Amino acid sequence: MHIELNHVSKIIKKNTILTNVNLEFEGGRTYGLVGTNGSGKTMLMRLLAGLIKASEGEIIVDGRKVEYGRKLYFDMGVIIEKPEFFNDLTGMENLEMLSKLKGKITREEMRKAMERVQLDPENRKKVKEYSLGMRQRLGIAQAIMEDPDVLILDEVTNALDEGGISMVYDVLKEEKEKGKIIVISSHNRQDIDTLCDEIYLVKNHTLQAGDQ
To answer: In what order do the strands lie in the sheet with 2-12?
Structure first.
């Protein structure tokens, strides 16, 4: 899979958030976005995920232009900012609800996704009782459960302890070996250095190549 962002800009109420962003993503590689709060990292991820429309430029997937509001040509797993769930349901019940949107996976596949992030699918605890770290694990489970072509993960290890961070590293390395495009952001430089093949600094409303 190949994704291109060509001269992409985003302007909101006359405020320039991103300008003239040019990027290419290839399958089997992990890309890191770094930058200060408000630099535009999350906005760039929203654009890539098709959640918002670019003010200028285009996004091309395997030679086909992505049209905002229309079905994407690829499957995507996403965490943007904090994962949100149905608080009065269990983790497994949340995944079951989310899976109904596409209806493409079995309950067993959802169980395996939870187990990969070290959550017990039989745990009857409601999500409202989850710690922040457990919510993050469940967010990663929902992102990977349908075996998407692309993973976009904002602050990928947020609220995780050392064991949780190690788990995320293992999961994402496995996903990369399957040939997926993975785009992450993190304030933890270790995440970026450990996981990423290419690093981009989001600064002054555009991208600069970072240390590889």
So the answer is: 15-26, 2-12, 56-61, 64-65
